Amino acid sequence: MNQPLDWLVPPARRFEGELRVPGDKSISHRAVMLGSIAAGPTEVTGFLEAGDPRATLRAVRALGIAVDSDGAGSLRIHGAGRDGLKRPTDPLDLGNSGTGLRLLAGLLAGQPFDSTLVGDESLSRRPMRRIAEPLSRMGARVETSPGGTPPLALRGGRRLAGIDHRLEVPSAQVKSCLLLAGLYASGRTRIEEAAPTRDHTERMLAGFGYEVERSRGEVAVAGGGELMGQTVAVPGDLSSAAYFLVGACIAPRGRVRIPGVGVNPTRDGVLRILERMGAEVALENRRDSGGEPVADLVAGASRLRGVEIDGDLAALGIDEIPVLLLAAARAEGVTVLRGAAELRVKESDRLAAMEEGLRRLGVSVAARADGMIVHGRQAPFRAARISSRGDHRIAMTFALAGLGADGPIEVEDCENVATSFPGFPARVRAVGMEVEECR
Ligand code: S3P
Predict the structure, then answer these.
(1) pLDDT under 70 in the chain at which residues?
(2) Helices vs strands, H then E, count in the chain
(3) Distances from the Cα of 342 to the Cαs of 127, 171, 241, 370, in angstroms?
């Protein structure tokens, strides 16, 4: 094990410049999985070269798929066709990645061979019954630990049949897991969503030539079809861009431009919430790239106000809620977040992590089982030492607390930022903050 990595962030006022963010994490995972089971080669550009999607890449290689990679975001995946995956010799280790593990479970549930999916300490605590239960109803044999967490053991050679499933908790991972299992099932697999979640799987399946039936609140696939290899240009990750949007909004001298970011309306909650908060954020040059909407984002120093964020809106920006709570701590008035209990079962308990960190900055907060109330602080944040709990999104959020603090911010345990955004400290430096990386 490496020495823990801490960040030391001195107070800063300037956050200005133009930068690119790395490729979208959700789309990178899906490109690798669909490319692997497509007939013929798939070319991917803009693949996120970070821990999570690389874990998925290692997993498909262990399933017999040849992938040429330049290590800088370009992949050529030699798709083996729908029935081309091979039995892995060892458990597949998805590291920190819930998306990798849950989506692969769907892909593997209907294969002729057994497989086992494992993850790191954080992933080994995350709930898997939400996929194990519906996969079992489809006829899969899935075992979790007694607590419903990984490892996940999948028995091969099962005949799957399509089911109707209603998602009680909004989750694109569960939806995608079942759609992927549905490719190997007889009949139709139909998923009903009470609230919309990111639809990258549906869009990409259609892009690979697979028929997907979509209507309001519902998506279905019939098993047995073929996917055709494609080219996939992965857009910049809106979840990574969110740190720079919020940084520009809360910095006294803030202005950033981020070209080529995915702005899919099923995950643009961060943009909608910032707009409600009165943020100066603009989308320029909107275009379509390979079935996904993309834009150049511009944000600048803003007078933010507190807002109410309900569960449906939170679901559209679930990964950006931590950094939005930091923005709320800099806003005038009170922000109330509700219906976001899912944040407690992400890479860490993000509500607890935000509550603790914001308090240390001198912000008045009250946590609820499913949300939080944040009172905007007009005085500068206090110097503080804050634990990221090994969670990449908590670490990046609190690094930005250096903007408008009256002393240094220390963020502990930032190693896992490499799971989604390896170049984060360098980009933060490029727009005017200092981040010292200390081992
Ligand atoms: C993701 C879905 C979300 C999100 C995660 C990526 C995806 O998780 O938090 O970072 O790529 O499908 P849930 O489906 O658990 O909400």
Answers:
(1) 1-2
(2) 13, 26
(3) 11, 9, 22, 8
Atom of ligand 1 nearest to the CA of 172: 14
Report the half-sphere exposure of 54 (CA within 13 A, side-chain side). 14
CATH architecture of 25-233: Alpha-beta prism (3.65)
pLDDT tens per residue, range 283-307: 999 999 989 999 999 999 999 999 9
CB 412 within 8 A of CB 4: yes
Query: Distance (Å, rounded) from C-alpha 306 to C-alpha 334?
Result: 5
How, if at all, do strands 384-387 and 436-438 pair?
Answer: unpaired
Domain ranges of the chain: 6-23+235-438, 25-233
The radius of gyration of the chain from alpha carbons, rounded to an integer in Å, stands at 21
The fold for domain 6-23+235-438 equals UDP-n-acetylglucosamine1-carboxyvinyl-transferase; Chain (3.65.10)
Other beta carbons within 10 Å of 185 = 24
**Fold equal for 6-23+235-438 and 25-233:** yes
How far is Cα 70 from Cα 154, in angstroms, rounded to an integer? 32
Atom number, ligand 1, closest to the C-alpha of residue 346: 9
Q: Exposed/middle/buried for 336, CB within 10 Å: 0-12, 13-18, 19+?
A: middle
Q: Is 319 in the pocket of ligand 1 (CB under 6 A)?
A: yes
Residue 327: predicted pLDDT:
98
Rounded-to-integer distance, Cα 394 and Cα 10, Å: 18
Find out whether 131 and 174 touch, Cβ atoms under 8 Å. Answer: yes
pTM above 0.90, yes or no: yes
Report the length, in residues, of the chain: 439
Query: 171 CB less than 6 Å from ligand 1?
Result: yes
Q: Around Cβ 2, how many Cβ atoms within 10 Å?
A: 6
Which helix (H) or strand (E) segment is 166 a member of? strand 164-167
The predicted pLDDT at position 1 comes to 53
CB 353 within 8 A of CB 394: yes
Which residue among 52, 237, 319, 391 is the active-site one? Answer: 319
The residue whose CB lies within 8 Å of the most ligand 1 atoms, and thus the one to mutate among 318, 394, 396, is: 318
